[in-house]
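Quick log. Single chain, no ligands specified.
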Amino acid sequence: MTKIVSLLMLLVTVLVGLLPAAPAQALAARTFVSAAGSDSNNCTNVATPCRHLATAYAATAADGEIYVLDPANYGSLTITHGVSIEGHGWASIAPVSGQPAITIIANTGDKINIIGVVLDGTALTGTTGIVFNGGGSLHIQDSVIRNFGSEGGIFFQPNASSQLSVSNTLISDNAADAILIFPLGSGTTSGVLDHVVMENNADAGLDVSSSTQAVNVTVSDSVLANNQDGVTIVSNGGPVEVMVRNCTIANNTNVGLGANTTTNGANIWVTRSTITGNGTGWSVLNSGAVTSYADNNIDGNTNANTAPPQIGYK
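-> predicted structure:
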């Protein structure tokens, strides 16, 4: 009898081994989060949303979309592949102490889109709104990034060629820079800031520095006010070029526009902009340069009210 049972068990084992393995659950192109959701749900339709972005992200395919259904705080998030977050202006994302609200460590070519979110650090120590360490591009639109601790609003630190785009966004009341662009590794980093308000930050509105990569940034139709510095750029090896167009640079306690380099060049070009109420309107150190297209309003600063060196219209 024992031999018969053993043979039957062996036969069952063999048959089970021949059956095809159950397929892994496929990731969804679109997932959902809601204040009434549960992280035990599958996140894949409006009727079964998850509660937190991190859970929904784990169920989202590369280059998929996370759709926020209603107002709530959806927790912090780490992004490792392309994704779009559709926050609709009511999605709140908050960090824990000492951590970013959003950390991005994606692959070359991955595209990350963050639309309509409110990131509020509630002044927690050591926090950052968004830290970007890798990926092809980061696009932020219709958002608010405020009240972050010693690391500021956006820390864009790609390790290869990458792009940053920010539009229709408020970045304010941070304990460091509103936006810090500081690439590592080789390549080229580019940035476009359009209709961005960078105000009341303890350091600069826009801080661009590079030791390796070439960096090219355009700032248009934006406000940089009531910070320590408006725009400050430093080249420690990688050339840094910033175009400022149709902007207001006002009431910054130190410098409105500042450029510093001892190596490959740090250049700010400014056109159709108002520079007023700053401690110093514009400043250059070493071989840095601030250049005007002769169509700016530069007045009311404590120092450097005269226009910087001018070039003709192009």
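The two ends are 97 Å apart (CA to CA).
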